[in-house]
Design goal:
Layout (H helix, E strand, L loop, with lengths): L1 E2 L16 E2 L7 E5 H13 L14 E3 L18 E6 L6 E9 L18 H7 L1 E2 L2 E10 L18 E5 L3
Parallel strand pairs: 3-4
Antiparallel strand pairs: 1-2, 3-8, 5-6, 5-9, 6-8, 7-8
């Protein structure tokens, strides 16, 4: 069994070891924020580039803000300060945010025709570089794998999501 990479936290609640991961690269679930993608695409288009489709980031979950939010009230990059999220109410799964997702040139490959472009990596490298790493999206994992009925939790398109900000 593989485990999450050491830079991804928090550790497993039961032991002081990294969380096990199944059928994934660095973490069980990759989450992106639609508002952040919108801001990134604004930056790309202002430089004359072509907007990035969400598929290039290969996210499992794409969070969107409420459609009833007034225009101009988006909160891009809010995920940088989130600690966890609860999906679908109190009975739904809680996911911990482990760390930002390190990006490479693979995000520049068009998912429909395999053509390689400069974007979105060029703009990400200019605007989302932290400690030498280019970040977009967040690694997440179930906070508690034990559900009341013994089955894996289910999430659906349109489920309400409540986020919790980190305390630091």
């Amino acid at each position: 069994m593989r485990h999450s990479k050491s830079h991804l936290r928090p550790l497993s609640q039961e032991t002081d070891t990294p969380r096990p991961i199944l059928l994934s690269n660095e973490s069980p679930i990759l989450t992106i924020n639609r508002s952040s993608l919108n801001r990134l695409n604004e930056q790309i288009k202002s430089g004359g580039g072509k907007a990035a489709h969400p598929a290039v980031f290969r996210a499992n979950i794409v969070l969107a803000e409420s459609s009833q939010l007034p225009s101009g009230q988006e909160q891009p990059w809010a995920e940088d300060s989130w600690e966890s999220m609860q999906i679908g109410g109190l009975e739904g799964p809680k996911l911990d945010f482990l760390s930002g997702c390190r990006r490479c040139q693979m995000v520049c490959v068009d998912q429909t025709n395999a053509e390689k472009n400069e974007e979105p990596f060029v703009t990400l490298a200019k605007t989302r570089r932290f400690g030498g790493r280019v970040l977009f999206g967040v690694h997440t994992a179930l906070a508690d794998r034990n559900s009341s009925n013994g089955s894996w939790p289910t999430i659906c398109v349109g489920d309400e999501v409540k986020t919790e900000r980190s305390k630091h």
